[in-house]
Amino acid sequence: MTDRSHDLPTDQPDPATAASVLERGLGRRSFVRAALATGAVMAAGVASASPAAATPKPRTRLPGQVLQPDTGPIDGDVYLPSRPEEVLWGYLPRTTDLPVVRMRSGQTITIDTVSHEGLLEDQGRDPAAWFAGKGVPRDQVLDDAVAIAAGYARHKRDFDADGPHVITGPVYVEGARPGDVLKIEPLSAMPRVPYGVISSRHGKGALAVQFSPDQGISAAETMPRTKDGRSTKDPLRYGNVSVFTPVRRARGGVPTAHLPVGTSGEVAWPLDPFAGLMAVATVGDAAKLNDPLVNSIPPTLGGGNIDVKHLNVGSAFYVPVVAEGALFSTGDPHMSMGNGEVALTAMEGSLRITYRLTVCKPGSGDAPSVAYRYPFGETPDAWVPIGLSDPDGSRNGQGSDLDTASRRAVVNALDFLETDLGMDRQVAYAYLSAAADFEVSQVVDRTVGVHGVIPKSHFS
Among 168, 179, 221, 301, which is disulfide-ready with 217 (CB 3.0 to 4.6 Å)? Predict the structure, then answer.
């Protein structure tokens, strides 16, 4: 961890000051802005949201270099790398865990997140070798990924039981107390490497074998289409499928992911990077680091593996604080993700993400009222109420019913419209039915998710 202030050109406003002035002048809900300042984002390449005017779309640019630890542009007041002795692999921090770094509310922190793809046991737990098989030279494989795969020893890894995610943190935010809300604002997200991975694993995903034949698909329709080798107990023989996905600059310099179509065609789409996992610690009774109660796969009331694609640069994610200091952690970096995340993973790829972390006190009006008891999202264009099928994770069983998640998203939307905007609840129910969208966040994280999108432009 490094405590540092980045150097800014003298003709540019201080980013934290610019953001603070903007929020004070325009009001919290008028604009949620996550850019440091109009010109303060490095030309070297970053996804950033413009702080000016109405509803800009964040633009992603490649950084022009592989972002090895402590190299290249670092935006935040504090820098947190991902070292084997400080990350957790497959589990979230507990409320009793010691922080790896402390910061003040409102400060910014740059975190080098590490994607789990290429590190996992079904890929050989040797990212240098696995990516070499995809044509990636060693100097384009991240040193921290190699170190974690080779040296992680905080608990014995169990591929079948552990979560896959490399979790960086926890971060202690001064002034955060139980009953507060932590406002998490992604300010920038730089791809650390020019490639990602999309994986489908047996027994997981929307078309997993256990959903046949009684849950809508035949055996022939299950995915992946490789032989299921889980009975061997050797992850290298499971038959899981990982699709290497290169990133290139398309017309206009837009970084774009590419996959083949047939023998000569191609499908391409723009990157939209974000962290699938942003969490505060909520579990205090887990006896060990790898307790099932803190498995990183299911999202919870503390956020966690929330996988809401709208929580990208320019958004704000609000989560209720349970522990002193909030104990923020992040991981599961995505270069892009479709709603549903149907195959199992998004386009997974390591990102350098800068966040602003701000404590919101009860009664301050700095956070949506729902956020004091449930995760809630906001973008420059919309409010994003969230619903989960089983928000206490694996405690007392695991529920994966999308109907349950959708009902909770609707209730949270109604609570927000009634309490925060003063809308009659019955009228709000009618409005949501006529004009708002409810989307499937993901169907693959044991606890499944639904989120609403309520356009701000509808409200005068």
Answer: 221
